[in-house]
Amino acid sequence: MELTREEEGILEGREGETRQRMMELLVGLGKVFSASRLIPVASAQVSGASYKTIGRWGLAWLESLDATVTVPTILNPVGMDRERWREAGIPQDFAENQERVLAVFRRLGVRLECTCTPYEILPPRFGEHLAWAESSAVAYANSAIGARTNREGGPAALAAAILGKTPCYGLHLDENRAPHLVIRVEGFSRGCGHQDHYGALGYLAGRIAGDRVPFLRGIRPNPDCLKALGAAMAASGAVALFHVEGVTPEAGRFLPATVGREEHTITAGEVAALLAEMPVEAVAMGCPHCSAGELEEIASLLRGKRVNKPLFVFTSRHAMERNRSLVEAIEASGARVYADTCMVVSPMMEGYSSVMVDSGKAFAYVPSMCGALARIGTRKECVAEATGGKAG
Ligand code: F3S
C-alpha cells in the first residue's frame, strides 16, 4: 500500500502513540483488502458507543486513546437516554459506565448526537467519501445519497475520524457499486401505498441478497422508506448498498448492468405473511431513529388514545429538540419517547419476553440482543397493539 511521507511519519510514531496505533489499524485493514492508498473522508460516524455492547474491555480501550478527531464525527446511539435514564429503569452502575464512554468521545472531539441517522445532521454529498460504521446509515448514505462508505467497524471508523482518511477499497471504488442481483417486488402499490411495509420487505430482501448489491424494481420508496428498507437489509443480510429503479441516484447508471443478473421476486403477500400475529408485552418504534415525519405520523396515530402496554419511541436528540410538540403529543398517550439510545443497544427491553417492532432491523436483532421474541408490524399495527385498538 502506497503511503505519503506524512502517513509514513504517523506510522513511525512521529505524531504520538494513538495516531500511530490508528494508522497501523488503517494500514492493516488496507492490506487485507488490497487497498492501493488512503483517501480523505468528509466525515465519520462511530459505533461501539453503548456500554451494553462494548463492556469494560471496550471502555478500557477507549480510555487509552489520546488524540482528537480531524473530521466531523458523530456518535451512534448509546445505551440510555442521557437525560431520562433513571425513569427508563437503567441501573446506576450501567449509567456511570456509559457516562465514562461518553466522556472519552467528548474528549476525542466526537459530536454526541448519538444517532443512527447522522445524514439528518451532517448530510453527505453525492460521491463524497465517508467512514461510517452504523450499518443502516451506511446503507442510506451509499444508496439514497450516492456517497461512498464501507461498513466500518467501530475502531476503524474511529481511526478514520482521527486521521481523516480511510483505505480505498470496496464501495469507494466504482467497480464494486454495480448490482449483483435483481429483486422484483410485486403487488406493492406505486407511490407510498405500502409505506409501513418497507421494514418487512427489507427483511426478506436482505435474506436473499446477503452481502451483495441488490437492484430493486417495482417500488417507489420515499426517503423514510429507503431508510427502513436499507436498515432491514443491512440486518437480515449485510447489504451496504442497494439501488432502486427510478429512485436512487446511481440506479440509472447501473441499469445496463442488471441484464442477465440473477433474479428474485418478493410479493406483497409474502411481506404480509411476515406481519403475523403473536402476543407481545411491549412495543418499540424508531429503528433507525424516527425522523420528524415519522414522529408526526406516530403522534397522529395516537391522538385521543391511551396505551395499555408499554410503547417506546426512539429518536435522535436533534429531532426531539426540534419537535417538542410532537413528543408531548405522543407522551400524552402514556407512551415514552427516548433520545440517544434505542431498543437494541439499551438494556431497557431485556425485561420483556416479547416485543413488537415496526422495523426489519429491530426484528432481526431484538431476539439476540435483548433475549426477547420479536414480532414485526406496520406502524399502525404497533399503535393498535399498544392501545388495544384495531389497526384498521
Ligand atoms: Fe439505530 Fe438502534 Fe436501529 S442504532 S438502526 S435504532 S438498532
Q: Rough shape? A: globular
User: CATH top level of the largest domain?
Assistant: Alpha Beta
Query: What hetero molecules are bound to the protein chains?
Result: FE3-S4 cluster
What is the strand tally?
14
C-alpha end-to-end distance:
59 Å
Percent helix, as a range, is 25-40%
Biggest β-sheet strands, sense, barrel:
5 strands, parallel
Number of domains: 3
Q: Which fold name fills CATH's third level, the topology of the largest domain?
A: Aconitase, domain 3
Second-tier CATH architecture of the largest domain: 2-Layer Sandwich
Can you tell me the residue ranges where pLDDT is under 50 for at least 5 consecutive residues?
Answer: none
> Could you tell me the radius of gyration in angstroms?
21 Å
Structural features, described:
With 392 residues, the protein is of the alpha/beta class. The protein folds into three domains: 170 residues, 2-Layer Sandwich (Aconitase, domain 3); 97 residues, no CATH class; 106 residues, Aconitase, domain 3. Helix content is 40%, strand content 15%. The strands form four sheets. Strands 12-11-10-13-14 form a five-stranded parallel β-sheet, with helices on both faces. Strands 8-7-6-9 form a four-stranded parallel β-sheet. Strand 13, helix 14 and strand 14 form a beta-alpha-beta unit. Helix 2 packs across helix 6 and helix 3 crosses helix 4. The termini are far apart. It binds FE3-S4 cluster. The site of FE3-S4 cluster (F3S) has 15 residues, from strand 10 and helix 14.
